[in-house]
Design brief:
- The chain has 695 residues and is α/β, with parallel strands linked by helices.
- It folds into four domains: 1-47 and 161-187, DNA polymerase, domain 1 (Orthogonal Bundle), CATH 1.10.150; 52-155, OB fold (Dihydrolipoamide Acetyltransferase, E2P) (Beta Barrel), CATH 2.40.50; 262-450, Rossmann fold (3-Layer(aba) Sandwich); 461-614, Rossmann fold.
- The chain is built from 22 helices and 21 strands.
- The strands form four sheets. Strands 11-12-10-13-14-9-15 form a seven-stranded parallel β-sheet, with helices on both faces. A six-stranded parallel β-sheet has the order 16-21-20-17-19-18, sandwiched between helices. The protein has a five-stranded mixed beta barrel with strand order 3-4-5-7-6.
- α11 (331-344) crosses α16.
- The longest helix is centred in the middle third of the chain and has 32 residues, at 217-248.
- The chain is globular, with a radius of gyration of 31 Å.
- The structure holds adenosine-5'-diphosphate (ADP) and magnesium ion.
- Magnesium ion (MG) binds at residues 306-307, 401, 555.
- The site of magnesium ion (MG) has 4 residues, from α10.
Length: 695
């Protein structure tokens, strides 16, 4: 058996040096194996043949005909048209191939060589009426020179590939077919027969052949099921392995729940914990006090009060003599957490430090030393904390806010900052994992959910409005002593998009609509000190209106702000809109989210509609997942989820469950097999994605 990973696509007939280069560059295909695992995005049924007499305008059809006269015409200066007369026993039709003149030399040559009077061909295309004649605009054709069974472009179920402009489907079909004919038998079956039988899977060689060139849709589905199963099995093997490892790790440090900090903290709070917060804090404490490390996701909608939950976990660590980190995705958010937390623990005799990118050297050195000596108890910051020279004396718990903003690598680095074995990790998110996915994919995480908002909150009223009405509405709220955000997508005028920019618009609004009010402006290009100053000024009501770019998207908490106006709302994704909206509705005053901008595509219409209808972050996450599809939703880079080539995390739930079952069985009974399956997988699980399981 040959190793198809090692065989270059150059060994396939019809792949020259130049093409091989392009395949690598544009489609990431280098080896024969890459080529065979380049799966179709769709399949088209061209197996049902029609007769010419049956053709109706508007239909997509495949017909088997004989070629009559052919001719070439120019249409205007740019288009060249190749026409052929077609006939079968029932009548006559015409076929047209329309091409741009400057690109058509090769195409034309091959048409002239192949589509000649008297040859028999299959033609696939759409039917039009040209005066009294039936005309077919050709999508694909294939001359019958060989056995009809061997056709790959017509007269069968035909694969449609995800392609760039540099390649045609026809070409890809040709090279994949010859790769499959020549090398399919060299594909290694790594799954033992007993699992294949038990879960009614097909052989891997069958799967690869039939995913490209199925004889029926059933065989295509069978092939797809097997290939998806393989993908999920790889992931589940990794996840299970890590779950086992974590369950075997025993922490070499212990907390001591004395409540000497927790009790005064609770008594100082201006509010009572909600029931949900109490429940979640209990889950977290129980987890931290147990002997195995915590690996927990805290999901709670925007405004549900995750910060005080996180702080409780940190206090448990600190009253036991350890350090805690709170990691935030933006400087603004880190600064805000810093201010909030300092206030919340006032009088508890603790040291809190802020670590962000652009600190002065001197300041950074000072803080670095405090952290290394164990003087600072809570360290709040951005990814700047991850820098190598920052070392902790006794870090025990790491909290990551808005965890979906961080990559896998970053999560790993931060855990390794602890000198202890098995530091505890708590990740927080307002973008919940849709219920449909449940725990199946996040097999190694425990999940806590905040399912209620603090009492006295009104649901945020979300409406679409015109600019004029929106500004009048805002002014009215300002007169009541409340504050407002106005959000723009960009900082500077962009020629390309011609969007109103925050800077320009702020100047204008200051002078016109909001004359007499105090208007602040904040955006990502300001220095951290400037941003911090503006946010704290806004929090202290020095501004009535804060005009901003999406830098305020996550986490910002200004309870007195009751209106947020989102300009060009149609341009944002649902999750971003929901996050932005969550900047208001953080007190017991009624709050409003006003959406400006006209939705132009169906998707943007649907997004705005969903947003005006519900405030429920779970529903929004599910809708978002539907609209965007899993790849984009999870942001594969970010989540550490592998890029599934064929598996669909939304619709393949039953396959995922089976794969998980098999993964558990394999790890229990034949762990070496797990290794060889992963080593043989297309994705690089052993090096990169395997780390997903650990975080
Ligand atoms: P998020 O979950 O979006 O991070 P925050 O932690 O920022 O939410 O909390 C939102 C607001 O609700 C803050 O102003 C916080 O002080 C307040 N809050 C949190 N818990 C409660 C509670 N139990 N009762 C009243 N207000 C609360
Ligand atoms: Mg938050």
């Amino acid at each position: 058996m040959q190793n198809i990973d090692k065989i270059s696509v150059r060994y396939i007939k019809a792949v020259g040096e130049k093409t091989a280069d392009k395949l690598r560059k544009f489609l990431g295909i280098e080896s024969v194996r890459d080529l065979l695992y380049y799966f179709p995005r769709a399949w088209e049924d061209r197996s049902k043949l029609k007769k010419i007499s049956e053709l109706k305008p508007g239909e997509n059809v495949t017909i088997k005909v004989k070629v009559g006269n052919v001719l070439t015409e120019m249409w205007g200066r740019n288009l060249i048209v190749f026409k052929a007369e077609l006939q079968d026993s029932t009548g006559i039709a015409f076929a047209t191939w329309i091409r741009r003149y400057n690109r058509s030399y090769d195409v034309l040559k091959s048409l002239k060589n192949n589509v000649k009077m008297g040859v028999e061909i299959f033609v696939t295309g759409s039917v039009e009426m040209d005066f009294w004649c039936k005309m077919i605009r050709v999508v694909d054709y294939e001359v019958i020179t060989k056995d009809e069974k061997d056709l790959i472009n017509t007269n069968r179920i035909v694969p449609i590939y995800p392609l760039t402009e540099d390649f045609s489907n026809k070409y890809l079909r040709t090279i994949i077919k010859s790769a499959s004919d020549k090398y399919a038998n060299d594909i290694q079956e790594t799954l033992p027969e007993k699992y294949i039988k038990k879960y009614n899977l097909c052989d891997i060689r069958y799967a690869i052949q039939y995913i490209h060139f199925p004889d029926t849709f059933e065989s295509k589905d069978k092939a797809r099921r097997r290939l998806a199963f393989n993908e999920f099995l790889n992931l589940e093997l990794v996840l299970e392995k890590f779950r086992q490892q974590r369950k075997m790790t025993v922490k070499n440090f212990k907390y001591n729940l004395t409540k000497k900090l927790l009790t005064p903290f609770k008594e100082n709070l201006p509010f009572e914990f909600t029931k949900s917060q109490k429940k979640v804090i209990n889950e977290i404490f129980e987890n931290m006090l147990a002997e195995h490390p915590m690996n927990r996701l805290l999901q709670g909608d925007v405004g549900s009060g995750k910060t005080v939950v996180a702080l409780s976990a940190m206090l448990l660590a600190i009253e036991s003599g350890f350090q805690a980190i709170l990691l935030a995705p933006t400087e603004i958010l880190a600064e805000q957490h810093f201010m909030t937390i300092k206030k919340l623990i006032d009088g508890l005799h603790m040291e809190v430090d802020l670590v962000i990118g652009r600190m002065t050297k001197k300041k950074k050195e000072e803080i670095r030393k405090r952290i290394a000596d164990g003087l600072s108890n809570i360290i709040i910051g951005t990814h700047a904390i991850l820098e190598e020279d920052i070392k902790f004396k006794k870090l025990a718990v790491v909290i990551i806010d808005e965890q979906h903003r961080f990559g896998v690598e970053q999560r790993l680095i931060i855990k390794k900052k602890s000198v202890f074995l098995g530091a505890d990790l708590l990740m927080m998110t307002a973008t919940p994992i849709p219920r449909t996915l449940g725990l199946t994919l996040y097999g190694d995480l425990d999940i806590s959910t905040l399912n209620e908002l603090p009492p006295g909150r009104y649901p945020i009223e979300t409406v679409e409005m015109s600019d004029k009405n929106a500004y009048n509405f805002v002014k009215d709220r300002l007169k009541h002593g409340e504050q407002a955000f106005i959000v723009y997508p960009l900082v500077d005028e962009s020629e390309k998009l011609q969007l109103k920019s925050a800077v320009k618009e702020a100047e204008k609004l200051k002078e016109t609509e909001f004359k007499g009010f105090s208007v602040g402006l904040i955006h990502g290009r300001l220095k951290p000190e400037e941003k911090e100053k503006i946010m704290s000024d806004f929090a202290q009501k020095k501004y009535d209106v804060l005009i901003s770019t999406t830098v305020i998207e996550v986490g910002i908490d200004i309870p007195n702000a009751t209106v947020i106006v989102i300009e060009h709302a149609d341009r944002y994704g649902l999750s971003t809109l929901h996050q932005l909206r969550g900047r208001v509705g953080r007190s017991n005053k009624e709050s409003y989210c006003i959406l400006l901008g006209e939705a132009k595509t169906d998707n943007s219409k649907r997004r705005l509609e969903v947003l005006t209808k519900t405030n429920d972050g779970f529903k929004i996450a599910e809708e978002d997942l539907m609209i965007r599809g899993p790849g984009e939703f999870f942001g594969t880079e970010q989540s550490g989820l592998p890029n599934f080539r064929i598996g669909n995390v939304l619709t393949d739930l039953s396959i995922i469950r089976e794969a998980k079952q098999v993964a558990i069985e394999i790890l229990k009974n034949e762990p070496n097999l797990a290794y060889s399956i992963l080593a043989n997988s297309k994705e690089d699980y052993l090096n990169k994605n395997i780390e997903f399981g650990e975080v």
